[in-house]
Specification:
5 helices, 30% helix
Length: 182
């Protein structure tokens, strides 16, 4: 099992001061979320058994809820969105003098976990009507099929969407970087 990564106290303080929200992720799977009665609007994940049992990251994860989606990252290819996340990481390090962090697209179960956890803690959604039911693109390891999946939607009934049509450039699919300690 991978070592659990934590932000330093100084990193946490700076991230929170800048509007960051820190979520501890403990390796939950989509199946674990379902056991906790978290609902999914789509059923596409049922066709991909490894996707349901692959764990979320074991790490503290920071997001900026007020700017969760990278601007103008929709209607882009996966590679273009990945490059935007690299640029976001560079800007984050320069702007806030945060050297020992990295930004990633995140895998499917991690984004699902974050969506449900953020909603449970704050009563607010990262996806949903107020965001035009947008999705975020995720990146899974090569062994997981499909490797690139979209997570989002989040209905008024608190059902999260998982779409396995990754190669489409879509106006509703954005990059949403997750900030991790190195």
């Amino acid at each position: 099992m991978a070592e659990y990564r934590r932000f330093s106290l100084a990193q946490k303080e700076l991230l929170k001061q800048e509007g960051g929200f820190i979520i501890p992720s403990n390796g939950e799977t989509i199946n674990d979320l379902k056991k906790r009665r978290k609902k999914f609007w789509t059923k596409q994940q049922e066709d991909f058994p490894l996707l349901k049992t692959f764990p979320s990251l074991r790490s503290e994860i920071a997001i900026f809820p007020d700017r969760f989606y990278l601007p103008k990252s929709n209607n882009k290819t996966f590679r273009e969105q990945e490059a935007m996340v690299v640029q976001f990481e560079q800007e984050l390090k320069e702007q806030y003098d945060l050297e020992k962090v990295k930004a990633v697209l995140g895998n499917t179960p991690t984004h699902a976990f974050i969506a449900f956890s953020y909603h449970a803690e704050t009563g607010k959604r990262l996806h949903g009507k107020e965001y035009n039911y947008a999705y975020v693109r995720t990146k899974n390891p090569p062994a997981i099929n499909p490797r690139i999946v979209d997570v989002g939607f989040f209905s008024d009934q608190n059902e999260l969407g998982i779409n396995c049509h990754p190669e489409q450039n879509d106006y509703l699919v954005y990059a949403a970087p997750l900030i991790l300690p190195k």
